[in-house]
Amino acid sequence: MTYKSFILCTFLAFSISFHEISAVDYFVTNEATNTPGGLRFDKEIGVPYTKQIMGTINDFIWCTVFQQNNPSDQKPLDSVDVYIVEFEGAEGISWGNNKINISSIFLQGYEGDLKWEFTSLMYHEMTHAFQWDGEGHTPSMLVEGIADYTKLKAGYAQEGFAKPGQGDSWDQGYDFTARFLEYCDELVPEFVAILNKLMRFDFDVKYFDYLTGKPVDQLWMEYKAKYEQY
Ligand SMILES: *[C@@H]1O[C@H](CO)[C@@H](O)[C@H](O)[C@H]1NC(C)=O
Ligand SMILES: [Zn+2]
């Protein structure tokens, strides 16, 4: 059965008739049903819940994180495909533009609220499907930082997520870069949304300068100074 989500960002209620409606299919396949992690997926998370949160997350990414209320700004995807697969070395991986593999071994071993942790992971992995990466020119650690920023904004930062001011460089990646992006958002409203838009076709570190009036190294120094206790 196909689960289609119709997403309509409604920032401009008065112009609603001009909106086109975007539709993305969500496919979820448990290829590890005969493993402990695959069984735990079916018992504690399940395909219906996964498809449901994929719609919620898709909506959150387009409407809130990237502010892409116009479908022509969105990365065009027909579907996002999730596979529960037995592999080691990561909790999840995104691949092939719109696909996500979740490790059944990770699901098996996780101690705590698995459904919550899975949801948090899905915020990160789904961002990869929808974000612009400068056609491959955006530094991979900034790409990872934006994926963790989505998680942070959604209230799904896991225990151990970096605190504001932590980290060694702006492009350290993941939670460290996510906290730095949160700081950039304080300086320039919708910073991450605009940065993502700028990265549609290319990346230049000067985008930071262009948006804030300061080079990224200076921004990082001022960020660290603000939270010098770390
Ligand atoms: C993800 O899982 C699918 C389905 O088993 C497999 O075909 C694909 O190669 C995997 N991708 C990666 C990057 O491991
Ligand atoms: Zn990632």
UniProtKB/TrEMBL annotation:
<protein>
    <recommendedName>
        <fullName>Plant basic secretory protein (BSP) family protein</fullName>
    </recommendedName>
</protein>
<dbReference type="InterPro" id="IPR007541">
    <property type="entry name" value="Uncharacterised_BSP"/>
</dbReference>
<keyword id="KW-0732">Signal</keyword>
<feature type="signal peptide">
    <location>
        <begin position="1"/>
        <end position="23"/>
    </location>
</feature>
<dbReference type="Pfam" id="PF04450">
    <property type="entry name" value="BSP"/>
</dbReference>
